[in-house]
Amino acid sequence: MNSTKRNYRATFILDNRGQEDSVDQIIDGVKAVIAEAQGEVTQVENLGRRDFIRVTNPKFTAASYVQIDFSAPASGPADLKDRLKLNNSVYRTFIQSL
């Protein structure tokens, strides 16, 4: 198995409607999931709450955006997305290679 790590930037749209968890608690949870996927977080930037340009749900028009830079094996992004599918606190995930 190739253990070479690559650098990625993931942007998450967080959904904490109806939950006790704060945005910081959700971010900590996402960082733990990245670690489970053999990832190593290098930087976290909370971009704050932003309105959606295209609203798909009238009751959900804005959310908190967070960018996390991390290094992981090539399988890391797919593994991370699979693990986050079950997490209702993460509304959307975008991962790009740096």
Essential attributes:
98 residues, Alpha-Beta Plaits, four-stranded antiparallel beta sheet, 2 helices, 4 strands, elongated
What's the gist of this structure?
By secondary structure, the protein is of the alpha+beta class. Helix content is 23%, strand content 41%. It has a single domain, classed as Alpha-Beta Plaits, CATH 3.30.70.60.
Task: Write structural notes for this entry.
This protein has helices spanning 23-36, 76-84, and strands spanning 6-14, 40-51, 62-72, 90-97. The chain has one domain: 2-Layer Sandwich (Alpha-Beta Plaits). It is 23% helix and 41% strand. It is α+β, with helices and mostly antiparallel strands and 98 residues long.
User: How are the strands ordered across the major sheet?
Assistant: 2-3-1-4
Mean pLDDT across all amino acids: 93
Q: How would you sum up the global shape?
A: elongated
User: Percent range for helical residues?
Assistant: 10-25%
Report the top-level CATH class.
Answer: Alpha Beta
CATH architectural arrangement: 2-Layer Sandwich
First-residue to last-residue Cα separation: 22 Å
CATH superfamily: Ribosomal protein S6/Translation elongation factor EF1B
- Indicate how many domains the architecture comprises: 1
Order of helices and strands: EHEEHE
Number of helices: 2
Largest sheet: 4 strands, antiparallel
Instruction: Give the helix/strand class.
Output: alpha+beta
Number of strands: 4
- CATH fold-level label: Alpha-Beta Plaits
CA-based gyration radius? 14 Å
Strand content: 35-45%
Identify low-pLDDT runs: none
